Amino acid sequence: EVQLVESGGGLVQAGGSLRLSCAGSGFSFENYVMTWVRQTPGKGLEWVSAIKWTGDTYYAESVKGRFTISRDNAQNKMYLQMNNLKPEDTAVYYCMANGEWGQGTQVTVSS
Description:
The protein is an all-beta fold. It has strands spanning about 5, 10-15, 20-25, 35-40, 45-50, 55-60, 65-70, 75-80, 90-95, 100, 105-110.
């Protein structure tokens, strides 16, 4: 059974930082593209970033230069370092892999 568990969300002031984590199990983590998406009531679902098994990384324009995605295949974990956070980054952040989602972690950025 595929399981993805996000953690690390919270409340932070604009300009602050958070580091999200995603722990995967039940699949060959090292062989899959891992993805972060976020969802807000107003904007819907937005793709944020992805990282291939090769370590190649991809970012949405809205987060490029502020967010850094990484993975640790030995630990079956993926991370999203979020710096210089903005109120518009407020959302529930989900990790995705192999067609599955985690339960999400709330990120709230106050102005």
